[in-house]
DNA sequence: AAATATTAATTAGCCGACTAACTAAAAGGA
DNA sequence: TCCTTTTAGTTAGTCGGCTAATTAATATTT
């Protein structure tokens, strides 16, 4: 209780928490051919299907190169499919397959389970407060032009 | 402001924050031959040098296999060295080299810079509150035997 | 003492993430 | 129009992380 009072350990603790959270989800969804990095991508497509690679990469905070390889794998496991954009031949759009849509239902349940676990015993106002602090941090890290 | 009210996005936001935090540190330490995953290992050794692989893996919340490969690389870049344990021939202990110790000074500064950035505009009691919430989450995720 | 189980570390193989370098297509300028 | 710049996506190479399987040494059991 008296050790680790420096802010560094807070980020270390955060990364540990996220690792456990991710692991909880992965345990549930692994049987559905979904790998640990894929839930954000599936959720993004379930909100708006047919995003381009660039849009999708931005939504899930990944680089295009990372996304390209992920989509390769997910195409192989039959979760998504690529279709060329009609107007711009540079653009490839990514769509959920039927299997992808079915699997996303289970992914959402898994996330719900993990979130209820990690935020259990939290008062609603504590969750709101936590959100406010995270948004403050995000703002702090935003590069300022001056 | 009105979108993303579900807890899921909180973990997504956390992972985004950590990614930026890690990137901030990496920008500073990259010239010192330190790769983005290595700061926690260096800090652990600067607190207690000569840990075994198993101990070190536990401290930084990694698996032994992950650690083994990291130590390989860090031995190549001259940051750490392996020495066998005297009493137990199964055990290998990891020590900071002189270069490793020097570099760790810069790593600590980089972490300090990144932490001051991410926690700027935070009141001391907000940091404490944030810590309390994270510890609550950690406790929530601890597997209970019952 | 000998057989068995456990522990420490490594290796192989995979997924996730990045940067840098590349190709192709579209947009903009002279 | 032609040249240049920008944008979209892929590929290659590397680091970080995992699980499963392997090897070696120590502990346990019988």
Automatic annotation (TrEMBL), chains A, B:
It holds the Pfam family MarR. Gene3D superfamilies: Winged helix-like DNA-binding domain superfamily/Winged helix DNA-binding domain. Residues 7-139 form the HTH marR-type domain. It comes from Paenibacillus qinlingensis. PANTHER family: TRANSCRIPTIONAL REGULATOR, MARR, TRANSCRIPTIONAL REPRESSOR OF EMRAB OPERON. Keywords: DNA-binding, Transcription, Transcription regulation. InterPro entries: HTH_MarR-typ, Tscrpt_reg_MarR-type_CS, WH-like_DNA-bd_sf, WH_DNA-bd_sf. It comes from the Bacteria. The lineage of its organism: Bacteria, Bacillati, Bacillota, Bacilli, Bacillales. GO terms for molecular function: DNA binding. This is DNA-binding MarR family transcriptional regulator.
């Amino acid at each position: 209780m008296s050790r680790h009072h420096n802010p560094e350990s807070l980020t270390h603790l955060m990364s540990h928490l996220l690792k456990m959270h991710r692991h909880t989800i992965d345990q549930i969804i692994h049987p559905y051919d979904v790998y640990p990095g894929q839930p954000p991508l599936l959720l993004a497509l379930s909100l708006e299907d047919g995003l381009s690679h660039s849009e999708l990469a931005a939504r899930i905070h990944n680089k295009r190169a990372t996304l390209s390889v992920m989509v390769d794998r997910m195409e192989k496991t039959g979760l998504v499919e690529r279709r060329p954009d009609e107007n711009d031949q540079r653009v490839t759009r990514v769509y959920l397959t039927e299997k992808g849509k079915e699997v996303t239902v289970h992914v959402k349940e898994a996330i719900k389970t993990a979130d209820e676990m990690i935020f259990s015993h939290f008062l609603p106002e504590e969750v709101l407060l936590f959100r406010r602090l995270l948004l403050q941090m995000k703002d702090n890290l935003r590069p300022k032009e001056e």
